Amino acid sequence: MEPQETQTYCQIACLPHLFEGYAKVPPESLARCLRLALRRSVNARQVRVLKMKSGHLIDRFLKLMGRSDKLSPSKTSSTTSSLKAGDLVRVRSRAEIQATLNPWGQLKGCMFMPEMLPYCSTTQRVLKRLERFVDERDYHVKKSQGIVLLGGLNCQGTSDYGRCDRNCFYFWREEWLEKIDEGDEKTVGSE
Questions:
Q1: How far is the C-alpha of 190 from the C-alpha of 124, rounded, in Å?
Q2: d(CA 175, CA 106)
Q3: 191: pLDDT confidence band, cut at 50, 70 and 90?
Q4: How far is the C-alpha of 63 from the C-alpha of 112, rounded, in Å?
Q5: Is the pLDDT of residue 36 over 50?
Q6: Could you tell me how far CA 37 lies from the centroid of its own chain?
Q7: Closest CA to 55 of 104, 13, 99
């Protein structure tokens, strides 16, 4: 018995057929070439295992050197777990966010991108909670917890790849946000 082919109505399945060629990217350094080659040669599960094991080694080394001043994700406050669409939040300062990140700039698997830095210490509005998303690396729908999308904060490209017109939302961990009462509202978008 042959499995039936189901028709999907999502543009993600069409992405490999949409492009007409590769765009120019910024000059590639040796470190970037090596990073991309490694990223292309291993799958997401292997990367997670590698980061977890090497992260433990880095933590031990930092403790031996007396530099373990970073906060672990478990020590961060989880008082914002009730964020919902329409809530007003303050994006924590750069120092507060960086104190929650591991050596790869991630908190619980969610990367804090350098392009998100201009939004630190600003007031924003929650667009919606992110509970499901399509992971374009393997085209599977993934579940998530503790991630929200902020209205109007979209990616315009990265320093590694240059400008991108896709306009994707940034994923924000709730630990990076502080809920604000509506009475304390200042100008949304800046502080």
A1: 8
A2: 12
A3: very low
A4: 24
A5: yes
A6: 21
A7: 104
**pTM for this prediction:** 0.67
Q: Which two tokens stand for residue 31?
A: 């470190």
What pLDDT shows up at residue 4?
56
Residue 168: name the closest of 124, 119, 125, 133 by CA. Answer: 133
Are 84 and 31 within 8 A, CB to CB?
no
The answer to which of 24-33, 50-59, 69-78, 126-135 has the lowest mean pLDDT is 69-78
Nearest to 153 by CA among 78, 89, 81: 89
Nearest alpha-carbon partner for 146 in 134, 132, 127, 129: 129
Residue-averaged pLDDT of the chain = 79
Residue where the block lists tokens 């300062």: 93
Report which residue type is found at 130. Answer: L
Q: Are 147 and 130 in contact (CB under 8 A)?
A: yes
Quote the pLDDT of residue 157. Answer: 84
Nearest to 177 by CA among 117, 110, 115, 120: 120
